[in-house]
Specification:
transmembrane helix, alpha/beta, membrane, four-stranded mixed β-sheet, three-stranded mixed β-sheet, transmembrane
């Protein structure tokens, strides 16, 4: 098979789609299965989530987290070609760079594939480039540059393998992190497919929070997962790759002393 000119690709998702086609993944089922296996996941809901994520990644609607980005590179044999690997990393870094905080300075960019993406407007780009110049000048003159942590006021949550609640109670019980550097916090559309069905209640978006990550060895921002108890009972589930046992009690059966 003749190797493509990888330098012609200007969008990471377009490059990903071309690599999938090159490897025979016209649909996403086989690649989703490989992705689950490589991630140590085997549940049906994990496979469904992987298929959905692949559709979104290939269409440019979402960007994978770094760990999935690295797994995809391995499965698609990106490192076999140094030029391809360089382009792969460069376009992914550029795509991450476009994910700036929402300041209202965004415009819609329709690429050749026809899907809508957001990118900074001219005013937004000038604002961020100006900020970078100021930071560099302050560093050069020896003045300490204090970056404000946008997540510092978020509530801190924890993970508990044993959750005890009563019917009607609603509580944040877990969180889905992004990268260890604090960037790329998942939105609910990414987290929701990885949240299981429960016979005792419902899982919903708990908003942004912070959580101690053993993997990152520090507190990182996360997408919080809220559970609302509806029915009394006991259930063991796998939530965001962790096992959780939920005990829901009926308030009428609680003994007060």
């Amino acid at each position: 098979m003749q190797e493509q000119d990888w330098g012609k690709f200007s969008r990471w998702h377009a490059l990903l789609d071309a690599l999938c086609d090159r490897s025979g993944h016209i649909d996403n089922s086989a690649l989703a299965s490989q992705l689950c296996h490589r991630s140590g996941k085997s549940a049906r809901e994990d496979f469904n989530a992987a298929e959905k994520n692949l559709r979104n990644w290939r269409a440019g609607r979402h960007l994978p987290l770094r760990r999935n980005f690295m797994i995809l590179a391995e499965l698609l044999r990106v490192s076999d070609n140094p030029e391809l690997l360089q382009r792969w990393n460069l376009l992914y870094a550029a795509a991450r760079g476009r994910e700036l905080p929402d300041t209202g300075n965004t415009a819609v960019d329709i690429d050749a594939g026809g899907d809508a993406r957001t990118r900074p407007s001219i005013a937004g780009r000038l604002l961020w480039s100006g900020t970078g110049i100021i930071a560099a000048l302050l560093a050069a003159t020896g003045i300490r540059w204090m970056m404000v942590d946008p997540y510092r006021d978020l509530p801190v949550i924890g993970y508990d393998a044993r959750v005890v609640m009563v019917v009607g109670e609603s509580r944040v019980i877990h969180g889905d992190r992004g990268d260890c550097d604090g960037g790329n916090v998942p939105d609910w559309t990414y987290t929701a497919p990885r949240v299981p069905h429960s016979s005792l209640g419902v899982f919903t978006d708990g908003g942004l929070a912070r959580k101690m990550s053993n993997y990152c060895n520090k507190v990182v921002p996360v997408r919080a997962v809220r559970f609302t108890a509806r029915t009394a009972g006991v259930e063991e589930i796998r939530l965001l790759d962790d096992f959780v046992k939920i005990f829901v009690n009926d308030p009428a059966n609680l003994v007060t002393r």
